[in-house]
Amino acid sequence: MRSRDAYILAGTIALTDSAVKGFIAKPPVKNYGFACNKMDKYPKAVACVSAALTGMLAVSMAFAPERMKLPMAMILGGALSNSADRLIRGYVVDYIPMGKKYYGNISDLAIMLGSGLGAIVSMLEDGNNSPASDDIISS
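and the corresponding structure tokens:
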């Protein structure tokens, strides 16, 4: 996947999630923290950290190997939407039940799928693109 296509996919994921959130009059869950409301007492810090990490991911995706662009685009799309929520609303709107006590959104699903896909791609790597273990041992 080319970088341009990866950024288009990320934007599509973010816009889709944002559009769905626009139709929800009363969100079932307002998440003020990270995943599972961690650090919910510090929403401004969470928003700053989220925005900074999203920016770093956006820049690093341009330099990522082709095989990692799809997983990174999925993660970036989710991060863009959730970061925008935090900066604009002060919380992330979660509307999809995930189990008995957790809620998520399309962005969360994209982040989870992208993370899983990235892990699988990394494990299936043939080793030609990563540093040789001999180089690490001999230095």
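(Above: one complete record from the training split.) The chain has one domain: 3-123.
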